[in-house]
Design brief:
InterPro entries: DUF7129. Helices cover 0% and strands 26% of the residues. The protein is an all-beta fold.
Length: 46
């Protein structure tokens, strides 16, 4: 499996671990809806 090449200046799609909210941003801290952690959707969950 290949890791993604990430450019911190480009926007990525992030998904909330808790409620599933999807956000496009350059960096995501916490979910704007529920405050839970976000993950980059291009990064596989293993």
């Amino acid at each position: 499996m290949k890791d993604i090449e990430r450019n911190p200046d480009e926007e990525s799609v992030y998904e909330c671990f808790n409620c599933g909210t999807i956000v496009t941003a350059t960096a995501a801290g916490s979910c704007p809806d529920c405050g839970a952690d976000m993950r980059n959707r291009q990064t596989p969950i293993e």
